[in-house]
């Protein structure tokens, strides 16, 4: 599935990538390397991949952002971590760097980077706010009043209306990509499993597929099917959580509590079926945890009994539906322009679901979600639909697997100690397409870039909030339900 | 010197300092009907001024270290520090990454209670937080003249260093506290 790279002269770099976008390809990732080059990975509509490379001559490269605004954050991140300058980028404020970072500290071009904040630190990183009479600045975070990941939001408000929201994320930046560099392949799975507590299976499968592909070993069909069970179980787990959070955003406590109870039922069953309530460490090149198909079928039958009345109830609740309709709209045009992922894209009329291109899904009977209005209600309905479709997928796969051999011991087997090569893998996680761009060199990680679906969706959340009432922010935010960990890394 | 005036309650403030959100999900589960933490006197409160304990998750990212210290400083005494999960406890898979600061102990001071697990289950978190409640329930902790050894230790904690001058107010999160 990996096509040879096409090297570009800097003069062709923008045109080549623009052309890929015009051809309706999806940008998987923009990845920088410490040996002064950049690479873009595109997924074409037919499932083939397209890769372009450009040299970072004299430390600069032509910015794609003016013509492809979806990579604005990617290029700012590259500037912060590598020091490469995207020439022509309209917003060069630090994205990840904080004023504590020393001026010459560019961790991704250093071996074993460490820093001590001192005199040679960068200057400030002030938020962008609206200035003028009657404008109120409201800051939220980085610490929050509940159980939430850390992020800093600066609102410019006029009356009730949000004029601008400035995101200061990356408070949870740990340096995960740098930390993965140099690790032996046998140590990678445990770290990758914890890049994101919500989409962990998706990340684990990406790493596993990468190793299998580079080793030239195809997984057995029943192993692929067991992975599908884990991927879809993760989708159900997260969608139940997100469906619970949306009513919480309007103070609809009973709908929230009942959906949280369904999530807890699912988690307890996952603990019984896989050994982990959040599915950590269930897929690696060595092993795919086997879910007992008959127990899974029983579980889904039980879940449907509590799900059906809940769904009917929230869908028929006039006040709740009223609050969601027309709130936090992302237009189809904006979603395409900024590269929306997952539920957010499918709620705004973009029918793309990476599962359509993932091995194992093609033979199954399921209907990808697609709503057109792009509001909170559409994102809620996409998740409702996807939970039921995931159960249908799980049931079909589980029935196929009854009596199949136990794949516990049927991973790749021995990973070649000198595994080398470049590979890009992707899966459709509950929060959008997660892509991993991986380079291995003699059994060690040379580069590991993680581009999560949420990373793309954050700027779209800002678009959905701006112009609306500040009181709608919790509702809109929860309808995106973006995680910070796999964005901040 | 403050007194803990409620016999069977513990109000907690939570700060995520670089967690993968696994610990958050399991802590959040405690607020649901299956565990119903409020029923046993536990609650997550919106302000550190109302909190008896600070629950920290994550390996403590460099960026969150200063806000984390500011939140801890804002808790009235007596107060307890809880490391929730392997990362905060100093054992997680990200320990050593360039923007991590060694969990709760490495970035602040030894925690009073550690709840291990990746992530710990809601039942384990409930057990751990109940243990925190018990440390505050020692009869002597209500009598200033005879403080418990634990409390004496807590009072010996040297004052935390002030936030560095190179931080902008936005990074410190002062408005929250």
From TrEMBL, chain A:
Keywords: NAD, Oxidoreductase, Transport
Main location: membrane
Annotated NADH:ubiquinone oxidoreductase 30kDa subunit domain residues: 26-108
Membrane topology annotation: Peripheral membrane protein
Superkingdom: Bacteria
Record localization: Cell membrane
A Pfam family matched in the record: Complex1_30kDa
Domain annotation NADH-quinone oxidoreductase subunit D: ranges: 259-402
PANTHER family: FORMATE HYDROGENLYASE SUBUNIT 5-RELATED, HYDROGENASE-4 COMPONENT G
Protein name: NADH-ubiquinone oxidoreductase
Organism expressing this protein natively: Sulfobacillus thermotolerans
From TrEMBL, chain B:
Pfam families, per the entry: Oxidored_q6
Record flagged with keyword Metal-binding: yes
Family the entry assigns: Belongs to the complex I 20 kDa subunit family.
Keywords tagged on the record: 4Fe-4S, Iron, Iron-sulfur, Metal-binding
Designated name of the protein: NADH:ubiquinone oxidoreductase-like 20kDa subunit domain-containing protein
Annotated SUPFAM superfamilies: HydA/Nqo6-like
Gene source species: Sulfobacillus thermotolerans
Cofactor: [4Fe-4S] cluster
Domain NADH:ubiquinone oxidoreductase-like 20kDa subunit, chain residue ranges per copy: 20-131
């Amino acid at each position: 599935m990996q096509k040879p790279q096409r090297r570009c002269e800097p003069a062709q770099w923008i045109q080549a990538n623009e052309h890929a976008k015009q051809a309706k390809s999806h940008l998987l990732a923009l990845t920088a390397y410490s040996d002064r080059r950049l690479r873009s990975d595109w997924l074409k509509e037919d499932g083939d991949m397209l890769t372009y490379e450009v040299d970072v001559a004299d430390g600069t490269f032509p910015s794609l952002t003016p013509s492809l605004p979806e990579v604005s954050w990617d290029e700012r991140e590259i500037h912060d971590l590598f020091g490469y300058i995207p020439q022509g980028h309209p917003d060069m404020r630090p994205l990840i760097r904080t004023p504590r970072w020393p001026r010459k500290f560019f961790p991704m071009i250093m071996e074993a980077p460490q820093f001590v904040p001192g005199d040679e630190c960068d200057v400030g990183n002030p938020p962008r706010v609206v200035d003028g009479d009657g404008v109120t600045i409201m800051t939220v975070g980085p610490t929050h009043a509940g159980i939430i990941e850390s992020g800093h939001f600066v609102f410019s408000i006029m009356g009730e209306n949000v004029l601008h929201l400035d995101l200061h994320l990356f408070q949870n930046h740990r340096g995960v990509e740098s930390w993965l560099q140099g690790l032996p392949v046998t140590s990678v799975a445990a770290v990758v499993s914890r890049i994101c507590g919500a989409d962990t299976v998706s990340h684990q499968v990406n790493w596993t597929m990468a190793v299998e592909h580079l080793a030239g070993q195809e997984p057995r069909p029943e192993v692929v099917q067991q992975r599908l069970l884990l991927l879809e179980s993760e989708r159900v787990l997260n969608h139940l959580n997100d469906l619970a959070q949306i009513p919480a955003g309007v103070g609809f406590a009973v709908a929230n509590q009942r959906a949280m109870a369904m999530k807890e039922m699912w988690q307890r069953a996952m603990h019984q079926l896989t050994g982990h309530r959040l599915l950590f460490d269930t897929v690696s090149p060595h092993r795919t945890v086997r879910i007992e198909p008959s127990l899974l079928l029983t579980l889904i039958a039980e879940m449907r009994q509590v799900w059906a009345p809940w769904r009917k109830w929230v869908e028929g609740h006039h006040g709740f539906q009223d609050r969601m309709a027309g709130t936090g709209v992302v237009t189809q045009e904006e979603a395409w322009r900024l590269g929306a992922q997952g539920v957010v894209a499918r709620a705004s009329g973009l029918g793309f679901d990476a599962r359509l291109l993932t091995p194992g899904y093609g033979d199954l009977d399921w209907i990808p979600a697609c709503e057109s209005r792009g509001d909170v209600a559409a994102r809620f309905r996409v998740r409702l639909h996807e939970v039921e479709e995931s159960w249908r997928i799980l049931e079909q796969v589980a029935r196929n697997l009854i009596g199949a051999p136990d794949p516990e011991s049927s991973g790749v087997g021995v990973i070649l100690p000198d595994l080398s090569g470049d590979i890009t893998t992707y899966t459709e996680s509950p929060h959008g397409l997660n892509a991993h761009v991986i380079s291995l060199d003699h059994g060690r990680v040379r580069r590991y870039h993680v581009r999560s679906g949420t990373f793309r969706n954050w700027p779209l959340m800002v678009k959905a909030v701006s112009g609306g009432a500040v009181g709608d922010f919790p509702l809109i935010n929860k309808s995106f339900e973006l995680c910070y960990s796999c964005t901040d890394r | 010197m403050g007194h803990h005036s409620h016999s069977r309650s513990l109000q907690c403030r939570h700060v995520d300092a670089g967690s993968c959100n696994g610990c958050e999900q399991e802590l959040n589960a405690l607020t649901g009907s299956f565990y119903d933490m409020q029923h046993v006197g536990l609650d997550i409160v919106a302000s550190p001024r109302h909190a008896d304990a600070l629950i920290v998750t994550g390996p403590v990212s460099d960026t969150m270290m200063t806000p984390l210290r500011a939140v801890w400083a804002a808790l009235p005494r007596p107060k307890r520090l809880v490391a929730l999960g392997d990362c905060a406890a100093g054992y997680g898979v990200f320990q050593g990454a360039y923007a991590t600061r060694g969990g709760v102990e490495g970035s602040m001071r030894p925690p009073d209670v550690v709840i291990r697990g990746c992530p710990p289950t809601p039942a384990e978190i409930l057990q751990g937080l109940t243990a925190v409640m018990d440390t505050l329930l020692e009869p002597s902790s209500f009598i200033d003249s005879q403080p418990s050894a634990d409390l004496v230790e807590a009072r010996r904690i040297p004052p935390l260093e002030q936030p560095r001058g190179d931080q902008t107010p936005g990074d410190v999160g002062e408005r929250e506290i």
